[in-house]
Design a protein that fits this description.
The structure is a single chain. Helix content is 41%, strand content 25%. By secondary structure, the chain is α+β, with helices and mostly antiparallel strands. The strands form 2 sheets. It has a 4-stranded mixed sheet, with helices on one face. A 3-stranded antiparallel sheet has the order 5-6-7, covered by helices on one side. Helix 1 packs antiparallel against helix 2. The longest helix is centred in the first third of the chain and has 19 residues.
């Protein structure tokens, strides 16, 4: 059985990495600190961009991945491409026999095949969506 990697975007570590990368890019680009060797500022900028690449490549590290915040979620299960869903646009969810069906406000349905996914992860996926959908409708 495969697992789903859950990533709440409130993680302070990754937020710190993103802020550090932005600071490095600004400091390196505008040469706020002058060094004897001018290539140091370029290296600082490159390191900032490398941190950005690491941050944004997280979605490709895992085959089954869910990332969410209070507004929306990105779900990628058993595929290369994922789906982004806004919690405001979700009308209802159904978890039936290894399938998660999400019905949007406009009536369109998005279905995720949860074959070979651990049952606890399937339930957690559904629980996160339901919790945030209810919270956004209040």
């Amino acid at each position: 059985m495969k697992r789903i990697h859950f990533d709440n975007m409130k993680n302070r570590f990754w937020l710190g990495i993103l802020i550090l990368s932005l600071i490095l890019i600004v400091f390196g680009t505008f040469e706020i600190i002058e060094f004897k060797n001018t290539k140091v500022n370029k290296l600082i900028t490159v390191f900032g961009f490398l941190l950005q690449i690491v941050y944004y490549s997280k979605t490709f590290w895992y085959k089954n991945y869910m990332q969410w915040n209070k507004k929306a979620t990105y779900i990628r299960i058993n595929s290369w491409a994922g789906k982004t869903l806004s919690f405001d646009n979700i009308k209802k969810t159904e978890l039936n026999e290894n399938q998660l069906t999400i019905t949007k406000q406009n009536g369109k349905k998005v279905t995720f095949d949860l074959d070979d996914i651990k049952e606890t992860d399937s339930q957690k996926l559904n629980k996160i969506i339901v919790k945030n959908t209810i919270a956004s409708s209040i």
